[in-house]
Amino acid sequence: MVNTKVRETAFPGPAHGNIEGNADGNADGNADKNVDRDVDGNPADANPADGNLTVGGISARLLAARVGSTPFFAYDRERITRRVADVRAALPRDVELSYAVKANPMPAVLHHMAALVDGFDVASGGELRHALDTQVPPERVSFAGPGKTTAELTQAVAAGVTVELESRNELARVREVAERLGLRARVALRVNPDFTVKGAGMRLGGGAQQFGVDAERVPEVLAELTAAGLDFLGFHVFAGSQNLRADSVCEAQRRTVELALRLADAAPGPLRYLNLGGGFGIPYAPRDRPLDLAEVGENLAELMATRVRPRLPGARVVIELGRYLVGEAGVYVTRVIDRKESRGTTFLVVDGGLHHQLAASGNFGQVIRRNYPLAVADRAAADPGAAPETVTVVGCLCTPLDLLGDRVDLPRAEIGDLIAIFQAGAYGLTASPTAFLGHPAPVEVLV
Ligand SMILES: Cc1ncc(COP(=O)(O)O)c(C=O)c1O
Question: What residue ranges in 226-361 does DSSP mark as E strands?
């Protein structure tokens, strides 16, 4: 086997765990020229990790052979386990951890996760079915999201999961469904808070929202809900996602707790459920610093002791996380199928692209395009002594949007070599337009 030298240096912190990058090449795997390095120093020096790329202890090359085709997504089982353990260790013992299935709904990931977390958050009837296939009991599954169809609400009520109501109309439909089925529907009210979260990559609360019932309207909706005979459990607030700032996550949690305690006065009985959301972010670019989990955990412990438990002694308190649990455990591996020069730029054309990993192309909600960390995972064809070079890595789709690495410094890669794109464990395949241009779907493996 070729002893490949890979360097994925454009990444701060312990980004890859079992997904081990690199070696002693002198290239900077993913130096993003568009990132203001002067703020955080040279990202090339920030990650000293060296070694061949492995996922779950298996080299990328062997894995590609085992999978049988490229491109593919590989998720590292052990890394997911460790991340959940880290979160559990940081959070107070009486706070439950729910996994947001939308981040990565691959069935093998779900089954693995089912043994690690307390519950699942689902966002569609399809996710609900997958969640119910696991060992997680229905009463630990919550269903949030606007625009639930009556068919989906019927599935949810019949299964006995918690429906997180997003509107008065949804409430009325759940009531009809419950009457039709002769069941008492378990419901929580998703509240659109009266504050916004600073630092969140994506805001889902505050201001006008399609999500949840505006906080000021909650008392009247609670009255309707009580009259409808629904089994009201409590509140769900999800204010934002992809937040790397611990102070801002802490503030959101504080404000969420205060809001819930205020609204609890209008509830038909003591709250049995309080879902505080999550929004813990992961670093995607050299300038991103990992979230300070300990700070979030300490803040939550204090909140639980001083505010939550005195008022809500029996409530299940839940933190709901997606990308934080799986995002860094995944890698997208794609093969170089062409290498060409055009007016001074060297392009590596790979067999993958935005149809599988849209987020890495910068077209999944990013305001400013930044390169995802990437590396040459295995250089089967290249001369090991070759000098590094600056290249642009593009996918195989016939659109300039299909840009995976803009002017990155990599060890010289040839046709046949493997390119790994990191941080691919969340919002990868299922958040990408797989039908676009009719290429085959990639394989996903949990290793
Ligand atoms: C209600 C809800 N829960 C959980 C999540 C998961 O967010 P993340 O993957 O950033 O943790 C989202 C994301 O949009 C969401 O809308």
Answer: 231-236, 240-243, 273-278, 316-321, 330-342, 345-350
Q: How far is the CA of 444 from the centre of ligand 1 (A)?
A: 22
Distance CA 326, CA 414 (A): 31
Report residue 359 as tokens. 């987020």
**Could you tell me which of 440, 441, 398, 394 has the C-alpha nearest to residue 413?**
394
Burial of 327-346, coded b for 16+ CB within 10 Å and e otherwise, reads: bbbbbbbbbbeebeeeeeeb
Cα distance between the two ends of the chain:
21
For residue 322 and ligand 1, the question of a CB distance below 6 A is answered with: yes
Residue 144 in tokens: 């949030």
Ordered domains of the chain (ranges, CATH):
37-76+328-446 (2.40.37.10), 105-321 (3.20.20.10)
Q: Are strands 231-236 and 273-278 parallel, antiparallel or unpaired?
A: parallel
Question: For residue 288, how far is its CA from the centre of ligand 1 (angstroms)?
Answer: 20
- Parallel, antiparallel, or unpaired for β 345-350 and 330-342? antiparallel
- Closest ligand 1 atom to the C-alpha of 103? 9
The string of DSSP codes covering 153-173 is: HHHHHHHTPEEEE-SHHHHHH
Distance 360 CA to ligand 1 centre (A): 19
Please give the average pLDDT of every successive group of 10 residues along the chain, which has 447 residues.
32 37 32 29 27 84 96 98 98 97 98 98 98 98 97 98 97 98 98 84 80 94 95 95 95 96 95 97 93 98 98 97 98 97 98 97 89 90 80 97 96 94 97 96 97
